[in-house]
Amino acid sequence: MKIVVRNAVSQDIAELVQLENTVFKTDRISRRSFRHALNSDNSALLMACEIEERDGTVIESIVGYSLLHLHQGTRLARLYSLAVSHLARGKGVAQALLQASEQEALSKNKIVLRLEVNEHNIPAIKLYEKFGYRKFGHYDAYYEDLSNALRMQKRIRHLSQERVSVALPWIQQGTPFTCGPASLQMGLAALVKSYMADPDDELQIWREATTIFMTSGHGGCHPMGLALAAKKRGAVAQVWLSDKSPLFVDGVRDALKKDIVTRVHSMFAKECDDKQVPIRYFAMTLSDLLMAFDGGAIPIILISTYRMDGKKAPHWVVLSGYDDQCIYVHDPDPSSNEHSSVDCQYVPIAREDFEKMSRFGQTRLQTAVLLSTT
C-alpha cells in the first residue's frame, strides 16, 4: 500500500462529505462548499488516497484531504482544512497532505502559508511545528464549540531579510463603505493610548470624511477628511497626494454629483489649511512610504482592488510591515466567507504588485494619510 496525493474531482465530493462528517463533529464543510472549492480558481482541493493492488486490480481509498485558499492579488495562502480518516492515522497521510499543500501554494507563487488549529489538538500542533510552522497569534472562541484556535504560519519561500513590522490591531469595517474609517481606527488605536475604537465612531469618522458621492452608492472617504478626523482624535496627520485636482470626480457622470464632490474637495482643502494639517503634493514612491514607516509613521494608503477582486474599486488599507520582496498590509475587509481576520492581517503583497495597486483610476492617483505622534 502507498499514499498518493492528487487533485480532487467532482466525483470525489460524496466521499469528501462522508469523510468530513466522520472526522469532525463541528465546523464541517458542506457539500456546496466543497463543490465551490473545486470550481474556484482561488482554491485548491487535494485528496490523499491509499492505493492497494488486489488480484491485479488497483483499489483507491480516500483517506484524507486538504483545502487551500489562495488569496488573489497577494502572496498569502491559507490552509483552511486538513482531515485524515481515523483508520489511516499514523501512516503519514497528514504529512503528505501538508507537503503537497505547500508545493501547491508555491506553484501559485505564494510566499506565506497560514492556518488555524485547535489549541487542544496537540498532535496536529506538533506536526506543524515539526515542519517549520510558528505560532503568531491566538483566536478566542474560533470554533463552533467556542474552543480557541492557534494561528500558525510558515514562510514557504525564503527571503533574504526579516520582516520589519509594527504592532497593529486589526479592525473589521462595519459597512461596505467604511474601509477608510476602519483603517484610520487601526492607526489611532496603535498610536493614541486614549483612543477607543468602536462602531459608532467608525460611522462618525465616515460622516466627517465622506466625499458624499462616488461612482455609485455611498461616497467613500477623502484623504483630507481622514487626516482631519485623525487630528481631532489626538494624532498628528499629514496627507500625501499626487494631484491637486478634485479627487474621485472622473467616475461621476451626474453633473450635480460631480459638482458636490468638487465642492467637498475644496472644503476639505480649506479646512486642512485652517487647521494646519499639511498636504504634500508629489508623486510618492514606495521608498518614500517605507522611509516614513521606518520613521514611526503609520501610512493609510488608497489602493485599487482590481488585482484582488477585479472590481477597480478604491479601498483603504494600512501599511503594517515590509521585507525585501513584499509589502504587508492590514485590510479591514474580509471580502468573502473564505477569509477570516487572520487572513486580513499582515497580508503579503509583492512590491511590484503593490506599486501598481497604489495607483487608482485613470489619473493614476496616489494618496496616503500618514499618522504619527509627533
From TrEMBL:
Record bears the keyword Acyltransferase: yes
Ranges where the N-acetyltransferase domain occurs: 3-157
CDD domains reported for this sequence: NAT_SF (cd04301)
Keywords: Acyltransferase, Transferase
UniProt xrefs under InterPro entries: Acyl_CoA_acyltransferase (IPR016181), DUF3335 (IPR021770), GNAT_dom (IPR000182), YpeA/RimI_acetyltransf (IPR050680)
Entry protein name: GNAT family N-acetyltransferase/peptidase C39 family protein
